[in-house]
């Protein structure tokens, strides 16, 4: 049991640590980051309950619509809502890179609990594949979401609302593409590999841009 729990939790913590350590200009308060992780973990249960009820009731029978509403849409919306409601106006959200960290933290909280429940149900055999795909993809969706939250928070013009909208719909679309690829039985592997490479490229580009925004922000604040 200990090995299984460790295998379920380790990928999420490793990815969160990676994005945390990428920030070399300022140290984000660990307590707030942990809170975002915990909030992301807590929303796993209501999301899974709603998904279960809708599936059992046969409310949505079309697989594509199910991917949009039950997975991509619902999961990304709840993660977005957590950040917007509890973190976006937080006093410690004080530089553009913070959004990226809180986005990753919230998404990885959700992904870690989801991964733990999956491995408890189906065993440790799929631990590596789940770390490589579902857990990392949630992290990357969160990075993209958080990047746009950071852009919105510190926008100096009327684009704050536009970035806020992008923070929801860009990760939602990416999640939809990810889920759609998994429905192609037989050759999904040949599609998911290039998509994951693209997702990593996109997320790391957002990390680089967020870091540059942070440098610009600190210069304006006369902190460097």
UniProtKB/TrEMBL annotation:
<dbReference type="Pfam" id="PF13367">
    <property type="entry name" value="PrsW-protease"/>
</dbReference>
<protein>
    <recommendedName>
        <fullName>Protease PrsW</fullName>
        <ecNumber>3.4.-.-</ecNumber>
    </recommendedName>
</protein>
<keyword id="KW-0472">Membrane</keyword>
<keyword id="KW-1003">Cell membrane</keyword>
<keyword id="KW-1133">Transmembrane helix</keyword>
<dbReference type="InterPro" id="IPR023596">
    <property type="entry name" value="Peptidase_PrsW_arch/bac"/>
</dbReference>
<feature type="transmembrane region" description="Helical">
    <location>
        <begin position="187"/>
        <end position="204"/>
    </location>
</feature>
<dbReference type="GO" id="GO:0005886">
    <property type="term" value="C:plasma membrane"/>
</dbReference>
<feature type="transmembrane region" description="Helical">
    <location>
        <begin position="6"/>
        <end position="21"/>
    </location>
</feature>
<feature type="transmembrane region" description="Helical">
    <location>
        <begin position="127"/>
        <end position="149"/>
    </location>
</feature>
<comment type="similarity">
    <text>Belongs to the protease PrsW family.</text>
</comment>
<dbReference type="GO" id="GO:0008237">
    <property type="term" value="F:metallopeptidase activity"/>
</dbReference>
<comment type="function">
    <text>Involved in the degradation of specific anti-sigma factors.</text>
</comment>
<keyword id="KW-0812">Transmembrane</keyword>
<feature type="transmembrane region" description="Helical">
    <location>
        <begin position="161"/>
        <end position="181"/>
    </location>
</feature>
<dbReference type="InterPro" id="IPR026898">
    <property type="entry name" value="PrsW"/>
</dbReference>
<feature type="transmembrane region" description="Helical">
    <location>
        <begin position="100"/>
        <end position="121"/>
    </location>
</feature>
<feature type="transmembrane region" description="Helical">
    <location>
        <begin position="33"/>
        <end position="54"/>
    </location>
</feature>
<keyword id="KW-0645">Protease</keyword>
<keyword id="KW-0378">Hydrolase</keyword>
<dbReference type="GO" id="GO:0006508">
    <property type="term" value="P:proteolysis"/>
</dbReference>
<keyword id="KW-0482">Metalloprotease</keyword>
